[in-house]
């Protein structure tokens, strides 16, 4: 009598068991999960899954944990992606990245769900634990209306002040002369550090930069943070960033992502339209719904032949092709009807 379990086969010579994929042991009672890191017949093959992935006991295929992808789950999610098999997109602005597992944005120097807001006044660093500048901090509190750099915490002094805390007045011991655009100081002997393409004016005395609309920073090298615009990026945009839309850093006008419209880009395209500025017309047929972003059609489910009526299910990019005989639902699946139904 053959005592092999789990569909194992008995040897006609000595009665030993030949176990199927996923099992091992004298009677094929042990699952490969119990034999750590093994799979296949008699659990003789090594699993190659990495980064905590689940190994299928039968064929050794890997089911990746969130944050990884690849045949053996060996690849971390690329920038802008997260989740199972890195299949989900994330939107983190101002150079910040998202958590490869949860998709939450890790903000440095900014706050908000998508890192769209600068740090609150007097704070800097990571969103999860803002470092508030106090008298006991490594960098003293900024004075004389100086701004705190949102990432480094360094004080950015106004004209006429200098020092670590901007608490020293700049002594003007020379006559003001008209310097060329890229020079400042006594006899215009110092070279401005301003980016000439992004700067309106280099101060002829202290060399500070007055940035054009769309730029900020000590040298006017930094584009405006995503939700700000105008000269020195002082004005706040009103665009809905959750839709993937953007704000023009010069004018503040909202640039809507595909599938959205309106002054704030918070309105979905009307029924029957899709794409950029909702200018493309959907071509879905037979009552199918149209994706407002990409125009893809989701076919409606029908009912296959009854005695009183016959309603067709549809398939194809435009939902204009009937399902094959014996198939139905939104994906033309095989029907399970019996007795001629």
TrEMBL record:
Paired cysteines (S-S): 19-28, 157-166
This protein's name: EGF-like domain-containing protein
Keywords assigned: Disulfide bond, EGF-like domain, Repeat, Signal
InterPro entries the UniProt entry points to: EGF, LE_dom, MEGF10/SREC1/2-like
Keyword Signal belongs to the record: yes
Record Pfam families: EGF_laminin (PF00053)
Sequence ranges assigned to domain EGF-like in this UniProt record: 1-29, 132-167
SUPFAM superfamilies, alphabetized: EGF/Laminin (SSF57196)
Annotated GO MF terms: scavenger receptor activity
